[in-house]
Specification:
- The protein is mostly helical and 223 residues long.
- The chain has helices at 3-17, 23-26, 29-37, 42-57, 60-73, 81-86, 90-105, 119-129, 136-140, 142-155, 160-168, 175-187, 196-200, 218-221.
- Residues 193-223 have low confidence and may be disordered.
Length: 223
């Protein structure tokens, strides 16, 4: 198995596990464990298996409540990556358009109302298209991924194992990357909101609103 093949398997599985744990997902425990068993990287495989132990051991209500509390109610752990870099600014709207155009060029269509910077979507694209163009959005939004990872680690949620798994197979952070993560955690994203109405409801974004998530705290960035 090549490293690229293993990364694709990891991205595909984590993409699925980062979606809302509905009846269909929770009922596919055997298939999910089999997919985890096929991961070649031992460390990543153990991280995913530890998450699955929690997910499949919880009741559906517990798993669903935890997901909502983690990603919908905790403003530091949003799954929309462009917010971490651009906040509610024109630049975020443009970043979303660029992502959507990249997807379209490779034949990936989004569901109605789905934003292209949602981490499960970005991971699905990486798994489908592969190294190079497919993984480019993950590299471009590494700062946001690291801030999300730090927030999940601080909260202690089992979802932290999934972000650890993704980051384990991404390129190692440089000193410049680490400095950017720390600076963004301290300063937060830009706050400009002028002009977002047209970007958030234009035809290129399928009428979806630009969902806001504040940045992590400085203590989260140190993890």
């Amino acid at each position: 198995m090549t490293a690229a093949t293993d990364r694709s398997r990891i991205f595909e599985l984590v993409s699925l596990l980062l979606t809302y744990p509905d009846e269909e997902l929770l009922g596919a425990g055997a298939e999910l464990r089999a997919a985890a068993d096929r991961i070649g990287d031992e460390t990543v495989r153990e991280q995913v298996e530890e998450f699955l132990d929690w997910l499949l051991g919880a009741t559906p209500i517990e798993a669903q409540r935890h997901y909502v509390q983690t990603f919908d109610l905790r403003r530091r752990s949003g799954l929309y990556l462009t917010y971490y870099l651009h906040g509610d600014t024109r630049k975020r709207g443009m970043a979303l358009l660029v992502l959507k155009q990249r997807y379209r060029a490779h034949g990936l269509r989004l569901a109605d109302g789905e934003l292209p910077d949602l981490l499960p979507v970005v991971l699905e694209f990486a798994a489908t298209v592969g190294p190079g163009d497919g993984e480019a959005p993950l590299r471009q939004h590494r700062t946001g991924i690291e801030l999300l990872r730090a927030a999940l680690a601080e909260s202690g949620t089992p979802y932290r194992f999934l972000l650890d798994a993704v980051c384990a197979v991404l390129p190692e952070l440089t000193d410049a990357d680490l400095a950017a993560v720390t600076a963004l955690a301290v300063d937060g994203p830009p706050l400009e909101t002028v002009g977002l109405e047209s970007l958030g409801h234009g035809p290129d974004l399928d009428g979806a609103a630009l969902t806001p998530y504040p940045a992590c705290s400085p203590s989260e960035a140190s993890r």
